[in-house]
Structures are given as C-alpha cells and as structure tokens.
Amino acid sequence: MSQIIFITQNQERYELSAESGSLMELAKANRISGIDGDCGGVCSCATCHIHIHPDHFEQLPAASEIELEMLELEDNVSDTSRLACQVKVQDAPEGLIVTVAN
Amino acid sequence: MEKFGIPDPFEGEREAKGFGTVQDQEDDVMMLLRLKDVRKTAKDVKTFQSGAKPGRIVVPSEVSIRDTRQIPFEVDPPLHGKYRSVLEDWFRRPENTDYQQAIAAIIRELLSEVKAKSSVEAVSEFSLKLQSRALTLLLNIPYAEAETWISWGTHVFRSEDSAVDGDKAEILYSYIDRQILKAEESPGEDLYSILLNSEIDGRKFTKEEVRGVMILTFAGGRDTVINAVTNTLAYIASKPQVLPAVKANPAIITTAVEELVRYFSPLTHMGRVVTADTEICEHAVKADSRVSLCWASANRDPNTFENPNEINLERQLNPHVGFGFGIHKCLGATHARQVLRTLLQVLAEDDIKISLLEAKENIEDWGEFQRKVGYDQIHLSFS
After folding, report:
1. Residue ranges of domains in chain A, CATH in brackets
2. Most CB atoms within 10 A, among A75, B106, B129, B229?
3. Model confidence at B1, in pLDDT bands (50, 70, 90)?
C-alpha cells in the first residue's frame, strides 16, 4: 500500500492510498480535479498531466519516448512533468507528491 | 471468413515527402501525413487557425452551404476555451453509470430486432439506429425523437452525386431551428434548453450560437459513429475469437476501443487555415492557404506505432489522434467511447455471433488517395 499526495491547481490536497493501477486511475477513482484520463491510460489524450515533486522525480522509472513526445507539446510542461497514466502506483515512492498540471 | 481490413493509402507519400495535395473547389489543401507534423500543427493554433470563414476548415469545404459557425470547433482561443468550459461538463455525462446502462439497453433492444432477421443491412438497420438512439441520451431528449433522425437516412449532408449538398443539409438546419424555438417556448432539461440558458462573457448564448453547437453535435457525431460501429461489427465478424477474449477479460475493452479508433480513424482529416507564410515538411506554405491534419495517416505512422496495419486490442501505448489532438479534440469523444465500449461489452456478455454475408465498401476519394472509411452497405447475420 503506497500513500500518494495529489495537489490540485486550486491547492486542494488529497492523501490517497492504493496497491496497484496507475496514478491516473487512482486520481479518477477519487475525482481529482484536472485529471480526466479520457483515453483510459494508453497515452493518447494527455488529460492526466502532473508534475512530480522534484525530490521524487528521479525515483520513478523513466518516461518512454512516446510519453515524452506527448509531453513535449503540452502546456504547463516542466522538467518533472509526467502523464499520470504512465506512472504505476507500485513504482511510486512512499509519500509521493504530485501536482495536477491543469 | 472474409478478412477485415482498412488499407493505408498514405504510406508512400507519408514516407517520401510527408504530405499530399487534395483539390477542393479551387481551394486546394495540403494534407499532412506524419504523426509528429499533425500533432505539432494541431497545437499551433495561432499559425493554423480554426476560426476562419465558417465551413472553410472542413474538407470538402462547406463555405457554399452554411454561414453558421460551428461552436467550439470553428472558434480560436481565447473564446474557444470559454465555450469549451461551458460545454465540457455536459459532454462528460457519458462517463456516468446510468448513461452507460442506458446505452447497453439500447444495444440489447437493437440486438433483439436484428437477431429476428436472417440478413441485416447493418449500416441502416444497426449503426444508424444505435447512433441516433444513443444521441437522444447526449441531448437528453425523448427516445422517440431518434426515429426522425433515422428517417433522414445515413447521409444527411451528402447525396449520391455530391459530397456537399446544401438542400440536404438544410433539412438538418431547419430541424435544429425548430427545436431551438420549441426549447425557447417551453424550456426543459435538454441540451437546447441548457444552451439557451448558458452564459459566455456575462451574457446569454445567442440563438445563432446554440445553432452552432447543435449543428456540430449532429454533424460531427453522425457518419463518424456510424462508421466506427459498422467497422467494429465487420471486424468482429472476421475474427470470431475477439468476443470470447473480451468476455474472458473485460479489462481489455479500454485498450481495444482506443485501438479500433486508431485503426478505423472514422474522420480521415480536418483542415486549418494558415495565418502567416510558414514552412511544413520543408515546403513553403502561404498565408490564407489550407492545410489538413490527416488523422488516418498519422494513426498508421510506423515511427510511432509498431505494426501499424495490425489491430492489437491490447496495445498499451497508443498515442493515436483518432479523436483529433490539442484544444480542438473531439467534444463528443466521451460519448463515442462509451458507445463503442458498451457495444463490445454487450456483444461479449451476450455471446453474440456475427457473420458477414455481403458488403459494399465506402471509399473516400481524396484525389491521389482513395481511402476505405467503412461501408456503404454491409449485410450481416446476428445470432
């Protein structure tokens, strides 16, 4: 069971726990504002853009080329941008902090 | 068993130079074929605008048959974002469980109709009916209204000899005008009434704006959904192992639908008008000319998609542009996804078997490219 903290653009803070799935699925299940996950997690829609806390970014497996190409054209992109559908809960360090990009 | 397939007519030109040319009513279109170029161009909304003269970004151009601007589709930022934020919540309703259950009920009713026949022309007797009946949910209007739309036939905007037919389009436009008047006289919980009561920049939507949203809703989701549903049925008929696999593992429905949308690409392309002289694919492009974003070609780009001409229902990384890309991505995508996901789910759960009897393909003519987009007619049997 990993604890993951989501911070929305309205500065709402959600402390969530999960054992499996992606960060997008976790956010959708908890109706986190700004995470739509329209495509269901196949890296097609970029409606689950998040910023990983800089202290945690390097602890996650690197993004695939396809994910990086999607992020390249996104608004509000940063050095720690990821698509939440591509980050697995089981890979998340305990207490991972993510900020919703939109 | 006939092998199902939608060939990729763009391969040669996509690899050789990255674009093709479509002649259209003396306003030629440079059709962009590579995924990266399509995405980059879709994102650059300043240089490649949608808010040109109404109808001009559509290929073939509808400039000669309508003055109404489709909203938010033919609007540029910042106004585009304001319209979109008014509309987003309504067009996300298909995510709700009761909406999904209502689509399942529509599909089961249709299946009971078609199973009683030995041969069914599926475009008119299944796909058109499913599209029309499901649209009553999106508009939140009485189910019986679908019968009117079904009576229009499969082509409301086109006739046998013309891709853009003003007289036929007028049937839809005058219908929408009558519905807006009705909603104005006795407001309800339907989309017409919601729009009439919506505000933008501190004022109510005008009737012309309501008309613009409704034309988009009807036009954008008609042939596209009909083709996606028909192609899904044809694919299942050619691959009897698909539905048992879905039944055994319903979790693949999400990736399956994204893959079918990628492979089918129900909308071949969409145009933009160039606002300043620029360059694409090392080719000069002049201001006030038109380019189009060829979703169908981009979705077969081998630089991104492994085995692009194969349907892999469990494709995990699938950055397709079947619903467009960027701020103008399809407003009705949530509805379309729900229709296709529920269709697969119901067909699998109910152990439906589909056989192909006879088919006539629908081939679009884009000058140097001839593209199969679906079927004019397809005779199937359901059991």
Report:
1. 2-100 (3.10.20.30)
2. B229
3. low
